Amino acid sequence: MKKIIISENTAKMRLDIFLSQNLNASRAQVAECIKSQGVRVNGKICAKPSALLKLNDCVEFTQLQTLQNTESSALTQDKTLDSKKEFSQIEILYKDDDILLLNKPPNLIIHDAPSTKEPTLLDWLKLTQKPLDSLSGNLRYGIVHRLDRFTSGALAVARNLKAHTSLSNQLKTRTMGRIYLAVITPKLKSDMVIECYLGRNPKNRLKMAKLASIDSQPLQDSHLLRDSHFAHRLQSAQNPQIPQSTPTLPKNLRYAKSAFIKLLDSKNGCFELIAIKLFTGRTHQIRAHLESINRHILGDELYGYKQESSGISYNGRILLHAYIMYLQHPSTMDTLFFKAPLFADMLNFLEQNFQKDKLNEVLDNNTFLQCFSNF
């Protein structure tokens, strides 16, 4: 703890203004520290940023640099980087002072947990990125959303508090999101939007499931790559308001909505490459929605079937990839689109099981940007 004694020059000054000037930090950062009980005045916790200081008051606070050193000392760079091969596969798609866009490899967990014994993406961020400016003891490294362990693709990280607030708000308003690619079986009968209420599967607590119905809506018979008005149709057809829950619905159910678009059939006609747009961000949303219509993603043993019965190996991953990310830049507010290239394992599977010329057409970056430019 660092101590400062209030002099005549700083008497009658607000606590947040005093700390902001002495620490060269914003008042918002200081307020966060104060509200999280990180500041003491005369030995007592002061959680009121507007508190007025008096002559000879003793102000104590935790220094940010000390917290950073304590946090990082728990990890050694050589041990962590060498123990997880997926760290070397993390690709930086874009980086500036506000945001970091990553291509997350499969089999890499995002957050630490008591049951997690292996390094995570959070560990990688601690080793390679500075924490967000914060005066509270709860250091953050800018993660605002996540991908399942076995899912690969685009992931955005905020590099300062302004960007973190902006991206978090964009997630709530759905101005930030991702377009996914997945290989499923059986094939979809048509493009469709699925919406329902998801909750914990009562027979398997590891899974989510459709526990209350809202009718699925088939889209008009058209193909993603042949319909320049796809984005407009999706935008106008759904999303403005979440339906009101009826009194009979349990409180733990969450409204979820996804659009599924047919892209390309496999050579043998058994698999299908699809694109998915999410209108909500629920746990296992894509997988649970597909299970509700008796479809599943290849490699998904939790919601599908064991690899042994399919006769195909997927190297311990799910063929689900966040291919396109769109967001508004926190500083310029320009709408940006990023493509996360497929990792070799999924790309090799697609090239072996789908016609290569048609595959290149549906994966073309310009095609996707044109189709989803309104989101």
Question: How would you sum up this structure, described in words?
Answer:
Strands 5, 6, 7, 8, 9, 10, 11, 12, 13, 14 and 15 form an 11-stranded mixed sheet that branches. Strands 1-4-2-3 form a 4-stranded antiparallel sheet. Helix 1 (15-23) crosses helix 2. The longest helix has 13 residues, at 161-173. The protein is 27% helix and 25% strand. It is built from 12 helices and 15 strands. With 375 residues, the chain is an alpha+beta fold.
Keywords:
alpha+beta, 11-stranded mixed sheet, 375 residues, 27% helix, 4-stranded antiparallel sheet
Helix share of residues? 25-40%
Give a count of the beta strands, DSSP E runs of length 2 or more: 15
Task: Figure out the total of helices.
Answer: 12
Percent of sequence in beta strands: 25-35%
Blueprint of the fold:
Layout: E1 2-5, H1 15-23, H2 27-35, E2 39-41, E3 44-45, E4 58-61, H3 64-73, H4 77-83, E5 91-95, E6 99-104, H5 121-128, E7 152-158, H6 161-173, E8 177-185, E9 192-200, E10 208-218, H7 230-237, E11 254-265, E12 272-278, H8 285-292, E13 296-297, H9 307-310, E14 320-328, E15 335-339, H10 344-353, H11 356-362, H12 365-371
Parallel strand pairs: 7-14
Antiparallel strand pairs: 1-4, 2-3, 2-4, 5-6, 6-7, 8-12, 8-13, 8-14, 9-10, 9-11, 11-12, 14-15
Helix pairs in contact: 1-2
